[in-house]
Design brief:
The complex is a heterotrimer. Chain A is mostly helical. Chain A has 16 helices and 2 strands. The radius of gyration of chain A is 25 Å and the shape is globular. Classes of the chains: A mainly alpha, B mainly alpha, C mainly alpha. Chains in contact: A-B, B-C.
Chain lengths: ~300, ~325, ~60
C-alpha cells in the first residue's frame, strides 16, 4: 500500500476503534438484556441487583405461548402427572395450562399481512418505478413528490378517515384491509427506491432486446427484472420490515382477527402482574427476524433510509 | 471489462432505429404501469384526505352517527389554535424534537467520523450499531419501560452504579421532570444510527484529493475539519435533521408505549393528543381539523425535505 | 443579494422556493414556541401560505 496523507495513523485507528466498539457495546446491551430476560425465571427477572448470571429456563417462552391458571393443590392432584416438558414448567410455577395463548395467532397475522402487503407492493411498485424511469410520464415530478409525501403523513391523522372508510366497507380488523393499507404506505418507498435501481440499468439492454423482436413487456420481465433483482429484493425487505414493525395503524384499525404482534406484545400479562420474561420472549421472537434482515441488507441500508437518494 | 453479446448488439443499433422501436405504444404501457399505484394512493390517501378536510368544518362524531351533522365553518380551527392545552402539547413535542435532534446529530456525527477512520472490523461494528433503528418502535418502547423500572431496571441500576444514587429513588417514566428525558433517551438510542449512516455517506463522498491539496497548503487538521469536512457533510446532515424532525414531529408508537403521554401531560406529544381526541373522545370533526393542521405542517416540511434530497443527489 | 431580488422579479424557481421554505420554517417555529400564544394562533396560516406558495413556485422555470 502506498503512503497517503489522508490515511489515518495506526494510533488514530486504534482510538477510533475503541470508541466505536465501546458505543456499540453500550447500544447493544439493552437488546442483549431483553434476550437474556426471555430466558429468566420470574423472580430472576425482577431481582435486585439485576442478575447477569442466572440459570436459563424456558419459562418465559412457555408462558408466552400458553394461557395458564393458578392451581390449588386439589387441581394439581386432579390433573395428574404432567404429560410433557412444557406442562412440567407450568407446574413448577404452580399453574396449569388451560390452552394456547393468542401470541401464535398474532404472530401469524404479522407474517400474513407483512408478506401479503410486500408482495402486492412489489408488483405495483416495480411497474410504476419502471414507467417513471423509462417513459415520459406527464407531471412526473409532481406525481413522484405526491407519492413520497404520502409516506410522510402522520399515521394518526390519516387513520381518522381510513377508520371511517374501512368501517363503511367492512374492512375494519380484516387482513385484506391491513394489506391494502400497508401496501399504500409502502408504495412510496418502493417506487422511489426501485426507480433508483432501474435508473442504473443501461437502457441499451432493453433496446437490444427490442431489436431482437421482444415486446416491451417481454423486455421488461426478461431483461430489466433479472437485472434489478438485487434492488427488488432489498426493497422488498425494507417494505417487509416496515409492515412488520408498524404499530399506529394496527392498534387503531385492528382489535382481534387481524391484530398483528406489535400491539399485542405490550398487553401480555401473567397470572400475577406483568410477566416480564414472557414479554421479553415475545419481543425476542419478534425482533430476531428483523436483525437477520438487517444483516442481509447492510449494503443497501443507506439507500433504503434516504429513499434512494444516497447511493454511496 | 468483458463484452456480453447483448452489449455488442446494443452498441451496433443505430440510435434512430432504437428510438422508433422503443416508441411503440409507450404511452399506453406507461399508463398501465402507473395507474394501479396512483389509483391505490388516491383511494387510500387522497380520498381520505379530502374527506378529513370536509369533516374538519363540521361537528361530526363517529360515536353518534344518528345525530344531525352541522357545518361549523372555521370554528374547529379557531378552537384548536387558541387552546392553551394543545399549545402545551406542541411545546412538549418541541422539547422532544430539539433534544433528540441535538443529541443524535452530535453522537451520530462523532460516530460516523470515527468509523470513517477505517479501523479493522468497522463494517461489523457499524452493522451492530444499526440494529436499534430497524426494530419495531412500539416493542422498543415497551421494553424500555422494563429498563426504566425503579430498582429492578437495568437503566436505573447502571445510573446508580456510576453516580451512587439509590436506584429505587427515581423513576424515569413516573417522574414529571424525568419523563420528558426518558423519551429523549430512548429515541436517541434508537435513531442515532440513522444520523450516523447518513453522515458516513457524506464523509465518504469527500474525495481524498481535497485533503491532499489542503495538506500541501499546510492547513492544520483542525482547519481542514472546519473548512472541508463540515461544509461537505452539511447537506447530508440537513437531510438527516429534516427527516428526523418530520418523524419526531409525528412521533406516536415509541412514546405511547413508553409513557402513554404521562405522567400528567408531560409527554403528551401532538400525535398522542390527537389520538385521544379522535379515538377516545370521538370528536371526529374537531380532530379532523387538528389532523389538517398537522398535515399541512408535515407537507410543508416534506417539500423542504425533497429539496434537500435533490441537493444531495446531485453529488 | 441583487441576484436574489432579480430572481424574485423574474419569477425564478430558486429564490422563490427559498422564500416559501422560510415561511414554512417560520410557521413551524411559531407553532412550537413557548413565548406567546398569539404567535401560535397565527402559525397555521403562515405554514399554509408557505406550503401553497411552495407548490406553486416549484413550477416556475429554473
Amino acid at each position: 500500500m502506498s503512503f497517503s496523507v489522508t490515511e489515518p495513523t495506526n494510533r488514530i485507528k486504534w482510538v477510533a476503534g475503541i470508541l466505536v466498539v465501546g458505543y456499540a457495546l453500550v447500544t447493544i446491551a439493552p437488546l442483549l438484556w431483553i434476550v437474556a430476560t426471555g430466558f429468566k425465571s420470574g423472580p430472576d427477572s425482577i431481582a435486585y441487583p439485576p442478575k447477569v448470571l442466572f440459570e436459563p429456563t424456558l419459562e418465559g417462552y412457555v408462558n408466552l405461548f400458553t394461557d395458564r391458571t393458578r392451581a390449588t393443590q386439589d387441581m394439581l392432584d386432579a390433573a395428574g402427572a404432567p404429560r410433557n416438558w412444557y406442562e412440567q414448567i407450568a407446574r413448577d410455577q404452580g399453574t396449569v395450562i388451560t390452552g394456547a395463548s393468542r401470541y401464535g395467532e398474532r404472530f401469524l397475522n404479522s407474517v400474513i399481512i407483512g408478506f401479503g402487503s410486500t408482495a402486492l407492493c412489489m408488483i405495483l411498485g416495480t411497474a410504476a418505478a419502471y414507467a417513471f424511469s423509462r417513459f415520459r410520464v406527464p407531471l412526473k415530478d409532481d406525481l413522484l413528490f405526491f407519492i413520497l409525501s404520502t409516506r410522510m403523513m402522520p399515521p394518526i391523522a390519516v387513520a381518522i378517515p381510513i377508520f371511517l372508510m374501512f368501517r363503511n366497507l367492512g374492512l375494519n380488523d380484516t387482513h385484506l384491509g391491513m394489506i391494502l393499507l400497508y401496501t399504500a404506505v409502502n408504495l412510496s418507498l418502493s417506487v422511489w427506491l426501485l426507480k433508483g435501481f432501474i435508473d442504473e440499468i443501461p437502457v441499451e439492454y432493453e433496446e437490444a432486446a427490442l431489436i431482437d423482436g421482444y415486446t416491451r413487456f417481454q423486455a421488461f420481465y426478461k431483461v430489466v427484472l433479472p437485472q434489478a433483482a438485487t434492488g427488488i429484493a432489498s426493497t422488498a425487505i425494507f417494505c417487509l420490515i416496515f409492515a412488520w414493525n408498524e404499530y399506529a395503524f394496527a392498534v387503531l384499525l385492528t382489535s382481534g382477527t387481524a391484530q398483528t404482534a406489535p400491539p399485542f406484545i405490550p398487553t401480555i400479562i401473567g397470572t400475577s402482574g406483568k410477566d416480564w420474561p414472557a414479554v421479553a420472549a415475545g419481543a425476542t421472537i419478534f425482533l430476531v427476524p428483523v436483525m437477520v434482515f438487517t444483516i442481509l441488507l447492510r449494503k443497501h441500508l443507506l439507500r433504503g433510509i434516504t429513499f434512494g437518494a444516497v447511493r454511496k | 471489462m468483458t463484452d456480453t453479446p447483448i452489449d455488442k448488439i446494443a452498441r451496433a443499433t443505430p440510435a434512430g432505429m432504437a428510438r422508433r422501436i422503443r416508441g411503440f405504444s409507450d404511452r399506453t404501457i406507461a399508463w398501465i404501469f402507473v395507474a394501479p399505484t396512483i389509483f391505490l394512493l388516491l383511494a387510500v390517501n387522497i380520498f381520505p384526505l379530502i374527506w378529513t378536510i370536509r369533516l374538519s368544518f363540521t361537528d361530526f362524531r363517529v360515536n353518534r352517527p344518528n345525530r344531525e351533522v352541522e357545518w361549523v365553518g372555521l370554528r374547529n380551527y379557531e378552537r384548536i389554535l387558541t387552546d392553551p392545552d394543545i399549545w402545551a402539547t406542541m411545546q412538549a413535542t418541541a422539547h422532544f424534537l430539539i433534544w433528540t435532534i441535538v443529541l443524535q446529530v452530535l453522537i451520530g456525527f462523532a460516530l460516523a467520523y470515527l468509523i470513517n477512520k477505517n479501523f479493522r472490523g468497522n463494517d461489523l461494528w457499524t452493522t451492530i450499531i444499526v440494529f436499534p433503528m430497524m426494530l419495531s418502535p412500539a416493542v422498543v418502547g415497551n421494553f424500555w419501560t422494563f429498563l426504566y423500572q425503579p430498582q429492578i431496571g437495568l437503566f436505573n441500576y447502571v445510573i446508580a452504579f456510576f453516580t451512587g444514587v439509590d436506584p429505587a429513588s427515581f423513576s424515569m417514566i413516573g417522574d414529571v421532570n424525568l419523563a420528558p428525558w426518558a423519551i429523549v433517551i430512548a429515541d436517541t438510542w434508537m435513531w442515532t444510527p440513522f444520523v450516523m449512516l447518513i453522515c458516513l455517506a457524506g464523509l465518504r463522498s469527500i474525495p481524498d484529493s481535497i485533503y491532499e491539496a489542503a495538506e500541501c497548503d499546510r492547513a492544520s487538521k483542525w482547519r481542514q475539519f472546519w473548512t472541508i469536512t463540515v461544509p461537505m457533510v452539511l447537506p447530508f446532515l440537513m437531510l438527516a435533521v429534516l427527516f428526523r424532525g418530520i418523524e419526531n414531529f409525528k412521533m406516536f408508537d415509541l412514546v405511547v408505549q413508553l409513557t402513554g403521554g404521562g405522567p400528567g401531560n408531560t409527554t403528551t406529544l401532538t400525535s398522542i393528543d390527537l389520538k385521544r381526541e379522535a379515538f377516545e373522545k370521538w370528536r371526529t370533526g374537531y380532530s379532523s381539523a387538528y389532523a389538517v393542521i398537522l398535515f399541512v405542517t408535515v407537507f410543508g416540511l416534506a417539500s423542504i425535505y425533497v429539496k434537500a434530497l435533490n441537493k444531495v443527489k446531485q453529488r | 443579494m441583487s441576484g436574489f431580488i432579480n430572481g424574485l422579479l423574474r419569477l425564478r424557481r430558486g429564490p422563490w422556493e427559498m422564500v416559501a421554505s422560510v415561511l414554512i420554517a417560520l410557521g413551524v417555529l411559531m407553532l412550537m414556541q413557548p413565548f406567546a400564544i398569539g404567535l401560535y394562533s397565527w402559525s397555521f396560516l403562515v405554514t399554509l401560505t408557505g406550503t401553497v406558495l411552495f407548490v406553486i413556485v416549484s413550477h416556475f422555470p429554473e
